[in-house]
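To assess whether the prediction recovers the assembly geometry, we first specified each molecular entity separately, as shown.
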Amino acid sequence: MAAPVSERDQLAYISNQAADARVNLEFESEGMTLNMGPQHPATHGTLRILAKLDGERVISCEPMPGYMHRGYEKLCEVRTYPQVTTLVNRIDWLGSFANEVPWILAAEKLMGIEAPPRAQHIRTILFELSRIGNIALFLGDLGIQLGGITVGFYAFRDREHVLNQVEAVTGGRFHPNFDRIGGLKDDLPKGWIAETKAAMVKVQKFCDQVEDLLIGNEIFQARTRGIGIIPPHVAESYGLSGANARGSGIDWDLRRDNCPPGLVYDKCDWTVWTHPDGDSFSRSWIRLQETREAAKIVDQLLDTIPSGAIMAKVPRIIKVPEGEAYVATENPLGEMGYYLVSKGDLNPFRVKIRSASFNNISIVPWLCKGVYVPDVISILASLYFILGDIDR
Amino acid sequence: MSVSPFGVLGSAPVLAGLDPPYWAATLIKVGVVAVLVPTTALILGIVFLFKVMSWMQSRLGPQEAGPKGLLQLLADGAKFIQKQDIIPDAADRFVFKVAPMVVLISTFLLYVIIPAGPSVVVESLDTGVFFALAMSSVSVIGILMAGWGSANKFALMSGIRAAGQLIAYELPMVLAVVGVVIQAGTMNLNGIIAAQADFKLFGVVPFPLFLLTQFPMFLVFLAAAQAELTQPPFDMPVAESELVGGYQVEYSGFRFLFFFMGEFATAFAFAALASVLFLGGWSLPFVASNSDLYTSTAFWLIGPAVLFTKIMLVSFLIFWFRFTYPRFREDQLQKVCWKYLIPTCLVWVSFTAIAKVVW
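The predicted structure of the complete assembly is given in tokenized form:
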């Protein structure tokens, strides 16, 4: 017959159990919350990424934009139409001129104005130059993020050639503010065409260099191939555009498929590249090819610039007639569009900016589930976002 | 008949009459190492980090401080010393403070056994290579301490990555050295150099370097050294674009300077080890070890100069890889180590052993 359990023993038993429970609670692996950003170098800007980790593996990952919100949509409503280009320049600050174009085209569409052919040509050339300037830095940044910093310096060196050409025309290296409703601010300076042709040769050389040094590198391929795969239907449902969509095998380019009037892409011979893999490597490779194509487009357009006026006849005080318009172009980062509502005033009534990076970054929580921490970096670098383009 | 300097290891012919007492000799040796470590770190930093790197990346590099910016690193060092020594509130203060010293001590101890001439060596140990490899692993403890003591998640991850990486890469490094040791028949670094000076391939062809017979091991040694230095392509523990500098993230002022100095001085020490083990150290090619040249007074200058040239060549390789390659991922790094480097070593070690017995 067992001895009756004393109260003291009972208490000891209970407290032992409680202590065990505490120890279990302490040793249970809960994972670690890692706060990347807003000042993390991989987010090249002020994106904050909240990652829950289990060792080196990412359980969940949430991008938190908003640290750089500047309220451009609201600010546009208190600016006149020509003043808005100064604002929207700063959305994707690496390819500033490209931000102005869809805005101007939307206003032109509502007003029923079309720029003269010479202005359209030069506009397209500048558009492509800003694309090269933007993506060249992407290629360099890709190297920096993955540890090969030399490519980064090469990118800064060769981007300079393009920026110099943009500066020679517009006077601004980063914020040209050059596009006008009905044309362009000025004509080309003397000798610019030959100089730009020489710059395009340098850009092609830079692309070859990047291919040798980075894209073709075995370590780079090991880091990016099969990492961050986006199937085409997922890319479509998240609204990815630009190289991110084409990297998933979606053959869609607004320059070719739905080019708004005012840009002359139909007059030159170029290729829209797609890659079936959908991984980080394919997105990077697409962008490299796109830089080459852009240089090719510029080279062809430089030969065929028509003569004529640079501005159409536009009233001195611009009032856009009542109506709504949505114009989107293929910007360096993807589809960028302005939905413009006018009540016939000096100022737009409402502007909605559809910028590419905001949609492109929305796939990060889906994409970064279960990858390693270093893969988060390569995925973010290959998705390629500009903070200004996310937060506006 | 001239006497081989290797017969009287450790006793300097020129200073033979000079026999300072033990305490004075120790003080002199400590002084020499204490001067050498920062000087070599400075040389590598200026030549490779500033000049060669900016040349490879087609930019100017520092230009202002001193002639052609050569004093930039001195200016940086002076700046670091003036900076506030910040210790995070949550840090494990003692561990945090001591960690950079531990890293630097492992570097200091590496310098002790590197010979710059037949008798220009702080301590000529019969277990030279073994001592070097053992001391180089001490730095892991320092890095782990820094990672843990910083009380920072990035630093912690970095410390754990570093521990995994450095311990994994000890093995290929040791195996790479084993081939040389088998071929030389000694672990004493001066003995290895003498063996190289006298080495004849197949017993006939004079063949002054172990580089060509041990070429795969040389590559493995360089890769492992790169990993031990946590330099790209093996720089996951530092990885400034992921871990924001890793275990160094909370350090400032002279403690950061210690890490910096440790990194470059260790790079120099590893380059010195590689040139001793594979490139014949201070010996000149095709000059046998019993030559009178090695015992002459002039060789007190020639020896270090020859070694220095070889070290600079090897460091150029190390830094060239560093500036060119992207970094591996942690698991890929382990895969490279266990699947490629170690099997290569094992094959080559057995090959060397067979060749040693046959010839």
